[in-house]
Amino acid sequence: MALSLQKFCMVVISVLVVFFPSPHFSLPHRLLSNKCPSHESEALLRFKEGLNDSDGFLSSWVNGTDCCTMWDGISCSNDANHVVSVSVISLQDVQGVIGESLCQIRFLKSLTINKVTGTTTVPPCLGNLPYIDSLNLSFNSLSGKIPSFVCLLTSLTHLDLSFNKFNGSIPFCLENLSSLTWLSLSNNQLSGSIPASLANISSLKWLELDHNLLSGSIPASLGSLSLLWDLSLGNNQLSGNIPDSLGNLSLLSGLSLLNNQLTGTIPPSFAQLSSLNRFYGSGNHFNETISSSSFPASLEYLYLSLNHQQVISETFFQNLTNLKFLYLSDCVLNISKTWIPSFQLTEISLESCKINREIPVWICTQFSVATLELVNNSLVGKIPSWLWETSSQLQHLNLSGNHLEGSLFSNASMLMQLERLDVSRNALSGHIPSIWSPKIQHLLLNDNLFNGSIPPSLGKLSLLEQLNLANNFLTGVIPPSLSECSFLQILNLANNNLEGSLPHEFSRLSKLYSLIVHSNNLRGSLPPSIANCSELQVLDVGNNSFGGEIPTFVGNLPKLRVLVMKDNNFTGSIPSKIGHLLNLQILLLSSNHISGSIPHTITSLQAMAIESQDGFILSTSQLSYALLYQDGLDMTLKGTNQHYPYILSTFTSIDLSNNELEGEVSSNFGNLKGLRLLNLSFNNLNGSIPNSFGEMSQLESLDLSRNNFSGQIPAELESLSYLASLNLSNNNLSGSIPQGQHMTDTFGESSYSGNANLWGCPLPKNCSWPQFATSPPFPINKEKKSNEYPWFQMAVGLSFGAAFGGIMALILIRISWRMKYFNKVDTILKFLFPWMKNLTL
Ligand SMILES: *[C@@H]1O[C@H](CO)[C@@H](O)[C@H](O)[C@H]1NC(C)=O
Ligand SMILES: *[C@@H]1O[C@H](CO)[C@@H](O)[C@H](O)[C@H]1NC(C)=O
Ligand SMILES: *[C@@H]1O[C@H](CO)[C@@H](O)[C@H](O)[C@H]1NC(C)=O
Ligand SMILES: *[C@@H]1O[C@H](CO)[C@@H](O)[C@H](O)[C@H]1NC(C)=O
Ligand SMILES: *[C@@H]1O[C@H](CO)[C@@H](O)[C@H](O)[C@H]1NC(C)=O
Ligand SMILES: *[C@@H]1O[C@H](CO)[C@@H](O)[C@H](O)[C@H]1NC(C)=O
Ligand SMILES: *[C@@H]1O[C@H](CO)[C@@H](O)[C@H](O)[C@H]1NC(C)=O
Ligand SMILES: *[C@@H]1O[C@H](CO)[C@@H](O)[C@H](O)[C@H]1NC(C)=O
Ligand SMILES: *[C@@H]1O[C@H](CO)[C@@H](O)[C@H](O)[C@H]1NC(C)=O
Ligand SMILES: *[C@@H]1O[C@H](CO)[C@@H](O)[C@H](O)[C@H]1NC(C)=O
Ligand SMILES: *[C@@H]1O[C@H](CO)[C@@H](O)[C@H](O)[C@H]1NC(C)=O
Ligand SMILES: *[C@@H]1O[C@H](CO)[C@@H](O)[C@H](O)[C@H]1NC(C)=O
User: Fold this and answer.
1) What ligand is nearest to the CA atom of residue 44?
2) Is the CB of 568 within 6 Å of ligand 10?
3) How many other C-beta atoms lie within 10 A of the C-beta of residue 416?
4) In sequence order, which residues have a C-beta less than 8 Å from that of residue 436 and are 6 or more positions away?
5) Residues with C-beta less than 6 Å from any ligand 11 atom
6) What local confidence, expressed as pLDDT, does residue 413 receive?
7) Is residue 826 lining ligand 8, measured as CB closer than 6 Å?
């Protein structure tokens, strides 16, 4: 019985399929007549020929079959049997000019070409197609000016040219597209001002011009676009005040002005925007008081971060009863302790708002908060217990950079939805709780006063990606169970009092790219199995008591960029496999007991052989590691210990000092043309200083002191114009010091002393006054110099060596570039890796 019922159902379904064809059922199309006009299918086939379809996306486009019914991405009009819509996505354009033949599909109404790599132009003849109402060419590599033919497509209702490389200005002729409801030109490189005439496109509902280089002010005429629903002008260089007239956009629901240079205030007319739901105004220069009555009650999203010191009081929020997302920073929050807000927020971010007291109690009236960020507010006292109890929905909690104290006890485990916790840079103490939300991905407890041991139960946090416990007072061993966190990418346990060894189980951490355990009391040898962590880019085991031979496995970590093993008890010689580390930029092995000679293969460290050019464009891969290595490095430059917070992508350094290295330095050492700091001091190296050192044109610090180098100082060193620090003292060098200005004026006696047979200025021996009448024969006081230019202290490895004439000018340019670079790297990285902004800086 059941069986026949099933059969009956199947018959009914088949009948339905035949009589009510729908795209969800595949019909036996071949039985139907071919609806596709042959010249149109020919045109499509020629279009396909210009595309590289190695993945078979267009495999259904077969000559002789009906393009209307059989071909993916094609549809035809029902009545007249013409192709009206063509859509191709994710292919590769072989010629760079896409779709000439499409111009023959005369009745085309909708054309979508997305993510077709290699496409740099579209043929102007598309402008002859009279019926096109939707043109979507987003996510290609189209460049040059916006083609003027688009202005001929007067039937267009939908024009999307976003995510291309268009430059030049927005063409005025777009105003002819009088039926347009959607216009997106976002994410290009468009410059110039926004044409006031766009306001003539009165049907516009969506206008997206964000992420370009547009400047000038926002045209007041946009206020007449009475149907406008969404206006996105963020991430440009717009300046001036927001025009009052925007208050006329009564249907406006979303307005983004993020990251421009707008000044003044939010016009009071905005209170009339009765549909406004989302206002993004962060990152501008609003320098007049933003009035409490400037926003309509409909508002749910309010982003006003990074404006100038706005004072925000309770009345500001009085009418904002629907607010759900509040992002303020760099403001002054003037709110009483007993305030009970009229809204229920889901996301709260108040950064650098000078709260200066306990965590505000009004937050406990917000029952469904998922994100709570109260960074850098000088918050004091303990984390109140209501925070753990009332905020069960909390996913992101960021209290970093305050003065919070007390312990976390086991309270933290009450937040069972927690994915990110950042309480770094406070004064929290006590033990690290052993129970956490199983959903936690980022756990940042660094820079506090936590003590006790690392709970082995952290290994149960199976989603953990980042664990930062650095700069606390943790004791005990590193629990091997951490190796069970199979998604772990960043592990930073630096600067605690941890002991024992590095667990060999860490070889299971296949995603780990940053392992930092420096400045603890760890001992034993490095487990060879670490070689299985093939993603490792940063390995820092410095300042511990590790011993044993320098493991050869380090040569098997192809992605390694930073290798720090300094201040340990490593013995043996430097493995020649080190030359396999083509990405290595920082190699610090100083203060161990390493013997043997420096392997010749060191000259094949490719990343140090690239001469970097100031002002070059940073590639993603070059940038990616800079943030990985959060703790920076302590490096001695000019005798002063400096802490570099980031390791910039161009930064390169080799420090093998204070070991027992012997033999000669490879004559090819100068291959490392991109090297900035080289320290080989306090070893037993002999032979002559290779002439090729003169080729390391980026070198800023060279320390060869306390070795047995003999022979003359190569005259080639004179050409190292960025050299700021040189120490050749205490060797067996002989002959005269090359008497160019740089070598004699920049460096003092102590750079050369302790070489019995060396003579010439600045050594007293055979240094004659008259020759140097125009410049002082003795070292200029460098302390004084660096005080005159305090920014000298800030740039990485900067040059204050050749302080005269044209070279000085060069250096100044270089320094100002570096400062910019320094400030920018951070922003760029945060942009590229949004989640990375959670790392402590
Ligand atoms: C087509 O694309 C594949 C992979 O995307 C590539 O390997 C092949 O070289 C390309 N062919 C041409 C002709 O560009
Ligand atoms: C499609 O097939 C027709 C008839 O067989 C032929 O004339 C035409 O050249 C073919 N077109 C392409 C692009 O192969
Ligand atoms: C636009 O980009 C092209 C290269 O694609 C360049 O030649 C041209 O100078 C740029 N124009 C403007 C105005 O930036
Ligand atoms: C288009 O806009 C400009 C500037 O706003 C204006 O002067 C002109 O009259 C408008 N044209 C039409 C047809 O509305
Ligand atoms: C638009 O706004 C301006 C300034 O707020 C106002 O003077 C004008 O009357 C408004 N126009 C309309 C059509 O509402
Ligand atoms: C705000 O900044 C603009 C542009 O810098 C300036 O013209 C204006 O006077 C400033 N307003 C106030 C109140 O400081
Ligand atoms: C709140 O809205 C009322 C009615 O629209 C208005 O009178 C009052 O000024 C508003 N208050 C604030 C602080 O914006
Ligand atoms: C922290 O806030 C103060 C103002 O309260 C500000 O001056 C400082 O720059 C902020 N620090 C950071 C790191 O944002
Ligand atoms: C390293 O990985 C390989 C293959 O993934 C595995 O066979 C080997 O046992 C691992 N070695 C260690 C020491 O974990
Ligand atoms: C080179 O290393 C030695 C020993 O580690 C150290 O004392 C010296 O300051 C370093 N030189 C420079 C220029 O950093
Ligand atoms: C050079 O190194 C020696 C140690 O060998 C040190 O005493 C001297 O101060 C250093 N000179 C400079 C200029 O760094
Ligand atoms: C906490 O906020 C600070 C400042 O905005 C940021 O740098 C850090 O990455 C945030 N932490 C997390 C885990 O999101």
Assistant:
1) 2
2) no
3) 13
4) 412, 413, 418, 421, 443, 458, 461
5) 639, 705-706, 727, 729-730, 748, 750-751
6) 78
7) no
**3-class SS at 732?**
strand
Which stretch of 422-431, 441-450, 789-798 has the lowest confidence by average pLDDT?
Answer: 789-798
Cα distance between residue 156 and residue 135, in whole Å: 7
Phi then psi dihedrals of residue 84, to 5 deg: -115, -15
For residue 34, the model assigns a pLDDT of 65
What pLDDT digit, counting tens, does each position of 633-663 carry? 433 333 344 444 344 456 788 999 999 999 9
Question: Going by CA atoms, what residue is nearest to atom 7 of ligand 5?
Answer: 245
Percent of the chain with pLDDT over 70: 82
- C-alpha 189: how far from its chain's center? 20
What's the gap in Å between 837 CA and the centre of ligand 12? 6
Own/partner pairs, 149-155, CB within 8 angstroms, 24+ separation: 149/124, 149/125, 150/174, 150/177, 151/127, 151/176, 151/177, 152/127, 152/128, 152/176, 153/126, 153/127, 153/129, 153/177, 154/178, 154/179, 155/130, 155/131, 155/179
Distance between Cα 704 and ligand 10 center (Å) = 9
Query: What is the gyration radius of the CA atoms in the chain, in angstroms?
Result: 33
294 C-alpha to center of ligand 6: Å?
19
67-120 pLDDT per residue, tens: 988 899 999 988 768 899 999 998 888 887 888 899 999 999 999 999 998 888
Ligand 2 touching residue 173 (CB < 6 A): no
CA of 398 to the centre of ligand 12 (A): 6
- Mutating to test ligand 1, I would choose from 49, 51, 54, 116 the residue with most ligand atoms within 8 A of its C-beta, which is 54
Alpha helices in 335-479 (DSSP H): 385-390
Query: Residue 226 C-alpha to ligand 5 middle, in angstroms?
Result: 11
* Span between the terminal Cα atoms of the chain, in Å: 72
Torsion of CA 726, 730, 733, 739, to 10 degrees: 40
Vertex 360: Cα angle to 356 and 362 (nearest 5): 155
Distance 749 CA to ligand 11 centre (A): 9
